[in-house]
Backbone:
């Protein structure tokens, strides 16, 4: 194996490198909806509230009627949720809400603390509901750990993409490629800082084609997650699907697709090189910081929960939309 790369299984969650903390990949083939955003199939035999079984090709996760993740706290980092297929209903303790999916991305800075729920409403009652979603946790620098919470939508119509001559597509969630640059990240994000080299790309490589990852500055971490396809060749090494390739070289790297269409997630960034202390959804630079964050949540619930249900879903008549804490609304 070429020493410029390290290869390991994807697992769950996917292993990441500084400045990233975590990457969850969800691919569920849900059945038809039951008219109330839940599955039409029986839930018997599932460990509801902790269903990560993948039984029959799908999980309920922490949901009991609708799959997803009811209200839970975060602080000290950011979540970047890429909903390639299926829908997500967002609600939070700031009073913000939204429904997004089928190519949309939500970028949320948890900062000093926020509660949110992420439910996966099965909006289709006459056909199956496929969900393909990434949730990436990007760390915040020490001096940004307690910034006010913030979220923005990157709607699929606005997300730039590069289409190479060989029909390979590179979708730019963060970072630049050739002559295109992604939409602005959240303002307090490490990704917004000059020199961070943060890049988050979804790559769809055409059969028997190739693409090149450009040169980066020394010290930048790069991981390529090969989650769908057959085989590719990287640095003269044959790589099978369902593997993470950590790239140690800072030079250009060419990926040759030796099989059918191949799908990748790229996570890249200059490391923060700061201590990370994590307890579940709380991230700090010290144990004392974690204790403080938990006490703060116990005392304030990060503003409380303004919605009727912890597993809040939005009206069936709503399409894709975002409601921001200041009352601003966006519809798609």
Residues:
């Amino acid at each position: 194996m070429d020493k410029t790369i390290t290869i390991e299984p994807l697992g769950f969650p996917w292993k990441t490198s500084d400045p990233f903390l975590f990457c969850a990949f969800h691919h569920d083939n849900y059945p038809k909806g039951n008219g109330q955003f839940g599955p039409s199939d029986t839930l018997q035999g599932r460990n509801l509230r902790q269903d990560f079984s993948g039984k029959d090709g799908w999980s309920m996760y922490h949901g009991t009627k609708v799959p997803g993740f009811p209200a839970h706290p975060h602080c000290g980092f950011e979540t970047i949720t890429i909903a390639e297929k299926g829908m997500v209903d967002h609600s939070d303790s700031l009073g913000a809400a939204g429904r997004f999916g089928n190519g949309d991305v939500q970028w949320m800075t948890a900062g000093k603390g926020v509660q949110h729920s992420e439910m996966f409403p099965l909006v289709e009652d006459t056909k199956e509901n496929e969900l393909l979603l990434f949730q990436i946790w990007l760390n915040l620098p020490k001096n940004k750990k307690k910034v006010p919470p913030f979220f923005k939508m990157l709607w699929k119509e606005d997300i730039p993409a590069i289409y190479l001559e060989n029909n390979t597509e590179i979708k730019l969630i963060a970072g630049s490629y050739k002559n295109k640059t992604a939409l602005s990240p959240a303002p307090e994000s490490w990704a917004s800082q000059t020199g961070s080299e943060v890049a988050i790309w979804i790559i769809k490589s055409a059969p028997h084609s190739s693409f090149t990852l450009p040169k980066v500055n020394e010290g930048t971490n790069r991981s390529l997650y090969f989650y769908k396809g057959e085989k590719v060749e990287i640095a003269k090494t044959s790589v099978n699907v369902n593997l993470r390739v950590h790239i140690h070289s800072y030079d250009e790297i060419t990926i040759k697709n030796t099989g059918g269409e191949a799908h990748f997630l790229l996570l890249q960034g200059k490391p923060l090189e700061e201590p990370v202390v994590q307890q579940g959804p709380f991230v700090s630079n010290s144990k004392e910081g974690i204790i403080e964050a938990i006490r703060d949540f116990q005392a304030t619930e990060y503003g409380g929960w303004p919605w009727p249900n912890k597993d809040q879903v939005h009206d069936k008549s709503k399409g894709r939309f975002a409601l921001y804490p200041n009352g601003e609304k966006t519809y798609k």
About this structure: Residues 203 and 257 are 12 Å apart (CA to CA). DSSP finds one helix and 26 strands in the chain.
